[in-house]
Design goal:
This protein is an alpha+beta fold. The protein has seven helices and twelve strands. The strands form four sheets. The protein has a five-stranded antiparallel sheet. Helix 6 crosses helix 7. The longest helix is centred in the first third of the chain and has 38 residues.
């Protein structure tokens, strides 16, 4: 601003100097005015491109999971195959879709968060904000959240591993400890199990320490038959093998038994009889029905062959003052005791 009463020549020279200084300031600060916004734009554009590429890769992974396994659409002949639910094709499809959808959602969210945080850090660095204090503060906050919600983090990590490893899925029959039944839902935090009585169990994934899955690849029907000690074991073996072969040849059980039933031999010598074991491989979740049918047919076959299925035997000693008559016979010993078998 020109002083009051300054001559016109002074005012003219002052304005000229300011006009000449403006281009010089723009030239000196051109890097800050153009370079920083341009770099920020490039960072944002680059982050968007990386996210788009990552999303495309995740989509391919999800589509690959959704594709049926080799031979899954073909009629099952051997019962062997991938660890996918084999008893119900609609359930198998539902299981794949849920698994793929969950994994895709988790991977997409993780990629988005990582790219966003990296882009934000790069932008803050461009505008001159120190990242050291921010990273230190974020580390302290993250540590506090980790300690406070460690059980929640464990649930999510366990759920992710369960799905990636395909330990079980919707429709599987599993044993998770106290909860035994059919899987109705598998999430990142919870697994829902419907037990035999209709109760719905909600189990945190972080609390699942071991899993028994009865629905993958194949199962085994095991039948223990007790026969009397005076039975001919060779005859018992022949009866059991014939019964198992007839069951496999039954059209009603076609494709359910994966091999001919085999007699494993004497399993134990109990107080009431000799226990012989019969076993056969079946398709998943059919072993219980096969065992019940084998039990029914075995009872009929043993009765037809005249082989006794023993009942509990007990010997009762009765003390009497004199001779005791049991079943019309004198059975008292010299001590006045009478054995009675029941």
């Amino acid at each position: 601003m020109a002083p009051t009463g300054a001559p016109a020549s002074y005012v003219l020279s002052s304005g000229t100097d300011q006009a000449l200084a403006a281009p010089g300031w723009l030239r000196d600060n051109a890097g800050a005015l153009i370079g920083v916004p341009l770099r920020i734009v490039l960072i944002v554009v680059g982050a968007a491109i990386v996210r788009a590429v990552a999303k495309k890769a995740i989509t391919r992974v999800v589509q690959r999971i959704l594709q049926p396994s080799d031979g899954e659409n073909e009629p099952r002949r051997t019962g062997r195959g991938p660890a996918v639910l084999q008893r119900d094709r609609s359930r198998a499809k539902e299981r794949r879709e849920q698994r793929a959808r969950t994994i895709g959602s988790v991977l997409g969210s993780a990629v988005t968060i990582v790219i966003a945080l990296m882009s934000l850090a790069m932008v803050l660095d461009q505008i001159g904000i120190a990242l050291g204090p921010l990273l230190a503060s974020a580390g302290v906050v993250g540590l506090a959240i980790g300690f406070g919600a460690q059980s929640l983090v464990a649930d999510y990590l366990s759920g992710m591993l369960i799905m990636m490893e395909d330990q079980y899925g919707v429709g599987d029959s599993v044993d998770l400890g106290e909860a035994i039944g059919e899987v109705e839902h598998v999430g990142l935090r919870l697994t829902q199990i419907r037990d035999l009585n209709g109760g719905l169990w909600h189990i945190r994934n972080g609390e699942i320490l071991r899993v028994r899955n009865d629905s993958q690849e194949w199962a085994r029907a095991v039948l223990d038959v007790s026969v009397a000690y005076d039975s001919n074991l060779d005859t018992v073996y022949d009866v059991l093998e014939r019964t198992g072969t007839e069951l496999r040849q039954d059209p009603e059980f076609e494709g359910i038994l994966l091999e001919d039933p085999s007699v494993w031999g004497v399993q134990s010598l109990d107080a009431d009889g000799v226990v012989v074991r019969l076993a056969v491989k079946t398709v998943p979740l059919k072993q219980w029905g096969v065992t019940r049918e084998l039990r029914r047919r075995t009872k009929t076959a043993l009765d037809a062959a005249g082989i006794e299925i023993p009942f509990p035997q007990r010997t009762v000693w009765m003390r009497t003052d004199g001779d005791a008559t049991v079943n019309g016979r004198n059975n008292a010993d010299s001590n006045g005791k009478s054995p009675v078998n029941r």
